[in-house]
């Protein structure tokens, strides 16, 4: 049997299993709390796994392993930013949000502000961040599935994108948060098992001696000792000082962006209490941390076993390093059949990874559209739960359709920068608004709106005029050049701008509501009046 | 949701000594720690950009400072998360539960 056939069978099994769970979950999805927050009935451990499943995208599994396999140490820099970021969520955001919010990020921001402008801003930001992230994932999915299943025709890739889009819409529309969460839990378990298995085989091959593995990787990469140090991909010496500032800018956006990503924030609402939210972030940190340590071995292992040249030949970004490693190490230890099986398993895990993340993004953006924009801005709160959930389902359809329609023409463009951009917008607009809301007494409507739009617009404008969009061979539009700023990552400017806009907007407005601040402070720290779990 | 939006209850609670104590216990732990781990992370990123000679120093076989520094970021993240959960369970949760009960008594 060819690995493509086996991978397809495994993938279809995953789809069948998760669809069954989704239909089962839909039987218990009746109220808005069920649809948006899974009835708040997940345990800390379950939600911790789902956080891992929501967060560990194909970009981090295949992307980081690929960066390490081709450029060595620089991929590790990425994973460290992705992990340390969770401390911001744990210490400052998760529990307080769970105590004071209901369904979306905007619930916390609108708590003591004038709801319509704040919800509009937060809704726009949520949808923009989620669609950028979604687009990057879907374009990646098309290319990846093509490579792994041997689909090389253009129409084959288009159908892959359509299939991924349809599946994510089905999970979200039918299963709501409950279905989506289970898809993420199953994926997290599969991903951790697959990554751990390949890691063990790789370490075994090198006699569990990390130094030997690193030495072989450096040698096989053809780059020598430089392969084990930063600087081959980000902030290279050739790029000079701006390259290094760009590296720091990326690092800051990664560490501050996570706690402002809407699809991550809504996960905190799926557990019954703030203590469970804390527990789920603890589990999330454990799972994500271990996973990135495994990725380090996978990346260097791929360089050592497969060789950087062969990896770059299969995919210029190195996205197939992990599957190639699985095939090589499987064949090395169990013979050819072993290689085929292991490759198929890792390919199926990669599909599951993509599906779980895009479903989470679709849910976050459609929830925000229905709950923030439709129910509170357009209808001023005069809607029933039933109407709101119906609109959320329709919105999921529309967002899925938009994502498919954008992803198909974007296939030929380099849109990898969209993930870093989503993190930058989340860190520049959403995070200042959330932190000020929770901790700054004086904060008000003008401040919240200024922080979100200021951060969003500055990040977008900086990126549009950056080498990520034009004027570089790796740009989205390599043939034109209207770049003005030598930075691909806007965070180092846009994050201070977001915080500053929030500050200035606040102090130039007289609005100030001491009693509402008393309420959010008491509620966020003690859990008084928090939204309870649904009873079934 | 039977909690009434009786703002005076919240203001009263916010002004109480016990609540100020809870707020102090939370902020005096979480804020300095956030500054500390962000500074520690930033140091790592800056060294990765500007001190590559130092980061490339080999310590044990092929294992260099960059790798050890990176792994230490993982270790510090795990330790801080663990320490926070201990702090919260011992110093924050009991007081928060007590204050919540007090407010709920007044608002229901």
From TrEMBL, chain A:
It comes from Planotetraspora kaengkrachanensis. Keywords: Cell membrane, Membrane, Symport, Transmembrane, Transmembrane helix, Transport. This is Cation acetate symporter. Belongs to the sodium:solute symporter (SSF) (TC 2.A.21) family. CDD domains: SLC5sbd_u4. It is a multi-pass membrane protein. Gene3D superfamilies: Sodium/glucose cotransporter. It comes from the Bacteria. Its main location: membrane. The keyword Cell membrane applies.
Automatic annotation (TrEMBL), chain B:
The keyword Membrane applies. Coiled coil: none annotated. The keyword Transmembrane helix applies. It holds the Pfam family DUF485. It comes from the Bacteria. Signal peptide: none annotated. The chain crosses the membrane at residues 29-51, 63-84. Keywords: Membrane, Transmembrane, Transmembrane helix. This is Membrane protein. It comes from Planotetraspora kaengkrachanensis.
């Amino acid at each position: 049997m060819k690995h493509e056939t086996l991978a397809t069978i495994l993938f279809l099994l995953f789809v069948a299993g998760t669809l069954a769970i989704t239909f089962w979950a839909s039987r218990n999805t009746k109220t808005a709390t069920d649809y948006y927050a899974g009835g708040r009935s997940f345990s800390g451990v379950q939600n911790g796994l789902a956080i891992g499943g929501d967060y560990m995208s194909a970009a981090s599994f295949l992307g980081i392993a690929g960066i390490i396999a081709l450029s060595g140490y620089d991929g590790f820099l990425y994973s460290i930013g992705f992990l340390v970021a969770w401390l911001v969520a744990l210490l400052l955001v998760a529990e307080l949000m769970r105590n004071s919010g209901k369904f979306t990020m905007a619930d916390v921001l609108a708590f003591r502000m004038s709801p319509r402008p704040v919800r509009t801003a937060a809704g726009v930001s949520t949808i923009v961040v989620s669609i950028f992230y979604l687009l990057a994932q879907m374009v990646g999915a098309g290319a990846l599935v093509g490579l792994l299943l041997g689909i090389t025709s253009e129409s084959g890739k288009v159908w892959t994108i359509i299939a991924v889009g349809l599946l994510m819409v089905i999970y979200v529309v039918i299963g709501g948060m409950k279905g989506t969460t289970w898809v993420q839990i199953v994926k997290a378990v599969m991903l951790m098992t697959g990554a751990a298995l390949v890691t063990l085989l790789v370490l075994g091959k090198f006699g569990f001696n990390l130094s030997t593995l690193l030495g072989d990787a450096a040698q096989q990469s053809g780059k020598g000792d430089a392969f084990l140090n930063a600087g081959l991909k980000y902030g290279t010496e050739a790029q000079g000082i701006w390259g290094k500032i760009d590296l720091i800018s990326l690092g800051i956006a990664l560490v501050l962006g996570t706690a402002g990503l809407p699809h991550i924030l809504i996960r905190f609402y799926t557990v019954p209490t703030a203590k469970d939210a804390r527990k789920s972030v603890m589990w999330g940190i454990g799972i994500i941390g271990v996973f990135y340590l495994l990725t380090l071995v996978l990346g260097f292992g791929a360089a050592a076993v497969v060789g950087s040249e062969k990896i770059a030949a299969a995919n210029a970004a190195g996205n197939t390093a992990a599957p190639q490693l699985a095939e090589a190490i499987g064949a090395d230890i169990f013979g050819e059949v072993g290689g085929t099986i292991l490759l198929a398993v890792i390919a199926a895990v990669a599909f599951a990874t993509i599906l779980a993340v895009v479903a989470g993004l679709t849910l976050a953006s459609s929830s925000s559209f229905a709950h923030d924009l439709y129910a509170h801005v357009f209808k001023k709160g005069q809607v029933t739960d039933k109407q709101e959930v119906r609109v959320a389902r329709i919105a999921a359809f529309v967002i899925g359709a938009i994502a498919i329609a954008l992803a198909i023409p974007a296939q030929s463009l380099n849109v990898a920068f969209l993930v870093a951009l989503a993190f930058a917008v989340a860190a520049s607009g959403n995070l200042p608004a959330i932190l000020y809301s929770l901790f700054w007494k004086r904060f008000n409507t003008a401040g919240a709106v200024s922080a979100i739009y200021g951060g969003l617009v500055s990040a977008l404008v900086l990126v549009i005029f950056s080498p990520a969009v034009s004027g570089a061979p790796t740009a989205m539009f390599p043939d034109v050049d209207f770049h003005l700023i030598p930075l691909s990552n806007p965070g180092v400017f846009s994050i201070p701008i977001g915080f500053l806009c929030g500050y200035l907007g606040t102090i130039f407005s007289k609005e100030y509501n001491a009693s509402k601040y008393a309420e959010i402070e008491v509620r966020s720290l003690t859990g008084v009046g928090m939204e309870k779990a649904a009873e079934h | 949701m039977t909690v009434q939006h009786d703002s005076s209850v919240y203001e009263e609670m916010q002004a109480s000594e016990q609540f100020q104590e809870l707020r102090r216990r939370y902020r005096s732990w979480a804020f300095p720690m956030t500054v500390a781990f962000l500074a520690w992370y930033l140091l790592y990123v800056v060294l990765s950009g500007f001190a590559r000679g130092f980061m490339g120093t080999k310590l044990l076989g092929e294992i260099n400072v960059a790798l050890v520094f990176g792994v230490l970021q993982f270790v510090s993240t795990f330790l801080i998360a663990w320490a926070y959960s201990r702090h919260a369970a011992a110093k924050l949760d009991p007081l928060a539960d007590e204050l919540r009960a007090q407010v709920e008594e007044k608002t229901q």
